Amino acid sequence: SDQVHITIDPVTIVDAGPDQAVCASSPSVALHGSVTGTLSAGTWSGGTGTFSPNANALNGTYTPSAAEIAAGTVTLTLTSAASTRPCPPASDRMTITIYPVPSVNAGPDQIVCAASPLVQLAGSVGGAATGGTWSGGTGTFTPGRNVLNPTYTPSPGEVAARSVTLTLTTNDPAGPCGPVSDQMKITYDAP
To answer: Residue 112, Cβ neighbours under 10 Å: how many?
Structure first.
């Protein structure tokens, strides 16, 4: 009789971690890769950004390039190291979604005559924001606070105080970017 010993290597399993969503204002992503089985090392690829400390760090950081931020997405692939054993290398992908930063502009400061105190506001939003709300002041926004370009009618107290500061705040956009705001000041000149 004779015997033969058969070694069965474990299959290499690669996990690139969950897909992630970041705001373009802070786009760096902490990677959560793992390689198990016969091997424990791997290399990240894909994307034109920067891996820190390098592409071989399974749990490093990836900073997207300007082009990836503009495109809004990047897919990275984690591939196990080459092996001399019979099990082939394995890989897994993860996608980073990059949400645009919301922007807001409440318009220029304005100086108006106290005798004609109505002011046409000129607000605008951009990026991930789709709307905004005016706040501040004790006057009236016509047709309402949720319109970007309403007419503002000051209260008598604001006219007497000779100024009011209004704030336009974006809605809370989808994704990880939060709302932003901008202010504008209305000054009332005595007639």
So the answer is: 17
* Whole-angstrom distance, CA of residue 118 vs CA of residue 99: 37
Q: What is the DSSP letter of 127?
A: T
Interval 14-44: pLDDT, tens:
999 999 999 999 999 999 999 998 889 999 9
Q: DSSP states of 90-120 as a string?
A: -EEEEEEEEEPPPEEE----EEEETTS--EE
Q: How far is CA 130 from CA 148, 184, 187, in A?
A: 10, 20, 29
Q: Give the bridge partners for 75, in sequence order.
A: 95
Nearest CA-CA partner of 69 in 112, 105, 25? 25
Torsions phi, psi for 157 (to 5 deg) = -65, -35
Q: Could you write out the DSSP letters of every residue in 148-175?
A: SS-EEE--HHHHHHTEEEEEEEE---SS
DSSP state of 128: T
Q: How far apart are CA 75 and CA 52, in angstroms?
A: 17
C-alpha closest to that of 141 among 111, 102, 186: 186
